[in-house]
FAD-binding protein
Amino acid sequence: MVRRGAHDAPRRRGSGMSSVLVLGGGFAGLLAAAAAGPYADTVTVVERDAYPVEPQPRRGQPQARHPHFLAPGGVLGAERLLPGVTDRLAALGAHRIGVGADLLFRAAGGGWLDRADTGRVGISCTRNLLDHAVRELIREQYPVMFRTGCDAVELIGDSRAIRGARVRDLRTGAVDEYEADLVIDATGRGSRAAAWLDRLGIAVPGAETVDSGHAYATQMFRAAPGAESDFPMILIQADGRSGRPAANAILLPVENGQWQVAVGGTRGMSLPTDDAEFRTYARDRPADPLLGDMLAGAESLSGTMVSRSSGNRRWRFDRIRHRPCGFVVTGDAATALNPVYGHGLSTAVRCATAIRATLAARGADPVAAAGLQRSICRAASDPWQIATSQDRQFSATDGAPLSALERAQLRYGEQALRAAAYHPAVAAIVSDVMFLARPARSMGHPVVAAGALLGSRRPVRSEAPLSAREFGFRTSGRVA
């Protein structure tokens, strides 16, 4: 990284890039830095907040109070970017969630899924712990420098090439110019990339949006005695087929013997505001009272925290007609998804692995072309389609209505989910698609197609597939 007036470090032989500047030091920015690390002499991450020494909240990340799940597809990609990351997280207290052995999942329209072990593993922990572990590993494995307490204010360059960014020190107000061969915007939903490019005379196509009005409330609980370290993740999806507002719920076992629990609903649902309302909502509003029953023996550790930031938004930076070289956008800054589907973290991983793969295949060439941005947008395409097709089935959603083909695809998916409740081979493929470990086109696999045909003739599994231990906990509030 070159700050104007600083000594220029020698270029690594054959790397093609001397420096990379990453704007935003959240999860997407950290992984983008890891992705570029092997192909640049220096990588600098600019972040508004000061990072805490321990896994603690920070002001610029209010969403960390809500559940975050690193799905199996995200785990696989994260291990490629940061070898050892899952072991590090587990050592710090994160839970390895076997899909579906350790997951109780009630799908929208599909009932409860079978719990046969698929061999896939997700990671369940607080966002604070996740980011802390990733920062530690990046510092150990890559030549990354962090500039905290700073904010990017504009890009340096013109309509042909971006050569860096102007960065303001939030403590002193001083503005420095950071030059780089590649600038990566990972500043999240609040990204100003479109406005920055507009100032340089670069027209960005308007953002696509789909908003179901989903809102959710989260509380932290101390797990009941005996359930601190060996308890399944619970996921109950909102079912929009009735045309009325629908509720969802999720329980994540996290570090320190705690549960992070969220309940929510689509536009028109009233959210709980205190512990008593939260417990009642969890029992009465979702399609099954299981999660509410499980909370009976758990102690509340926090107030009720509400989020209404759930709209899907996609900027098509890959479709800029005359795009400048040296600048790409990743993570939520490019494609922001409804958090209730649990794909945000894994989509950031997919985008970062796309950056790594493109740089590995073409060196510095994509920096001078549109190839790198296209690869990022392709990586987010499946998660975008999954989230928006689900959200567009709710009657109060703002966004383009489902086409006849999309409605047929949703019906096919529901039939496949019914089959997954009875057939482990179908469940393995369907869950891989849902958790981003396989491409969406895998839903056309002959095993799934045959299952979907049979699934339309099978009843929905209405009872959660609990173990004897879990059933006892549900009825007594204690683990035997």
User: Anything to note?
Assistant: The chain is about 30% helix and 20% strand. The two ends are 58 Å apart (CA to CA). The mean pLDDT is 91. The longest strand covers residues 150-157.
